[in-house]
Amino acid sequence: MDLSLIVPVYNEEENLPLLFQAVQAAMQPLKLEWEVILVDDGSRDGSLKVLEELAEKDTRHVKVVALRRNFGQTAAIAAGIDHAGGDIIIPLDADLQNDPADIGMLIEKLNEGYDVVSGWRINRQDTFSRTFPSHIANWLISQVTGVHLHDYGCTMKAYRREVLTDFRLYGEMHRFIPVYAAASGARITEMPVHHHPRKFGKAKYGLERTLKVVLDLFTVKFLTSYAKKPIYLFGGTGMSLIGISAVLLIFLFIRRVFFLVSVFESPLFIMAIMVAIMGFQSVLMGLIAELLARTYHESQDKATYTVRRTINLNK
Questions:
Q1: What is the DSSP string of the chain?
Q2: Per-residue confidence band for 304, with pLDDT thresholds at 50, 70 and 90
Q3: Residue 88, φ and ψ in degrees, nearest 5
Q4: Stretch 208-236: mean pLDDT, rounded?
Q5: pLDDT of amino acid 165
Q6: Phi, psi at residue 197, to the nearest 5°?
Q7: Phi, psi at residue 266, to the nearest 5°?
Q8: How far apart are CA 106 and CA 93, in angstroms?
């Protein structure tokens, strides 16, 4: 299988027939062995029935995964990836805002030597209330992770299968796949893709999703930067707190010697002791996290590195 298209579906009954027509039209000139995996994420309309009809019409290309309830877009994409057989995997939305005609363009870019090609909706056809928080989130993610992309929220991205095998997706983390891939040494680029106004149905997400993305960003930053050496985070924080405590105690000592001000009656003394205790606790947490990290890697025989390719090796 050359290509797997993954489409999470939630209440998109009217869009699905048009989407499949667009996918067929886009795939016909590419001459690839392809499949489209449509993941019904607990739809409450007639989406699943439409999916069943599409699967019956085209048994070769259409595959349906029906989840028991609504788990969210990330879980639906993860289910699609788990059931995909293609060497290249491209998720896209079911609402026809992503254009299947861009699939060939993404694959051409991927064949230039990249592992991930991220879509960039330059002319995004959404309301200001959706685009403005998205711009802020994209800037924040780029600054925190060091992986600079203009549009993390664009579902339409092309991946080589091997960059999707070293992690699991939770929460709203499908948008962070390029960050995980970059941590494994993947070559990443982005390119403009078309974006269309929604024709049928309504958007499933509001401003509350931005908060979830920001919270997930903390997790992603920890996993990509400190998962293998958590002592750097906890120990660094602990040493900083101990340093602050030391400065406060030195200040209190100098004030006692030269100005005869009582140390124990000052609230700064209590503050210095509390900060020192917090610092020691943070260092100890770092040591415990180190043991957990080593247990995780050693119990699963999981390497702390990833190999792009080997030459003249049979093992």
A1: --EEEEEEESS-TTTHHHHHHHHHHHHGGG---EEEEEEE-S-SSSHHHHHHHHHHH-TTTEEEEE-SS---HHHHHHHHHHT---SEEEE--SSS-B-GGGHHHHHHHHTTT-SEEEEE-TT--S-HHHHHHHHHHHHHHHHHHS---S-TT---EEEEGGGGSS----TTGGGGHHHHHHHTT--EEEEE--B----SS--S--THHHHHHHHHHHHHHHHHHTSS-THHHHHHHHHHHHHHHHHHHHHHHHHHHHH---STTSHHHHHHHHHHHHHHHHHHHHHHHHHHHHHHHHHTT--SS-----SS---
A2: low
A3: -115, 135
A4: 86
A5: 81
A6: -65, 150
A7: -85, 135
A8: 15
Q: How far apart are the first and last CA of the chain?
A: 25
Strand partners, 90: 5
Q: Would you say residue 303 has pLDDT above 80?
A: no
Cα–Cα nearest to 173, from 99, 100, 73: 73
Residue holding tokens 């993404």? 106
Both tokens assigned to 178: 């390029």
Tokens of 119: 């879509």
The structural domains of the chain, with segments of one domain joined by +, span 3-225, 231-299
CATH classification (class only), 3-225: alpha beta
Q: What is the pLDDT of residue 194?
A: 94
Taking CA atoms, 18 is separated from 94, 201, 268, in Å, by 10, 13, 68
Asked whether 63 and 55 are in contact (CB, 8 A), the reply is: yes
Q: Identity (one letter) of the amino acid at 5?
A: L
**Length of the chain counted residue by residue:** 315
Average pLDDT, the chain: 89
136 token code pair: 């802020």
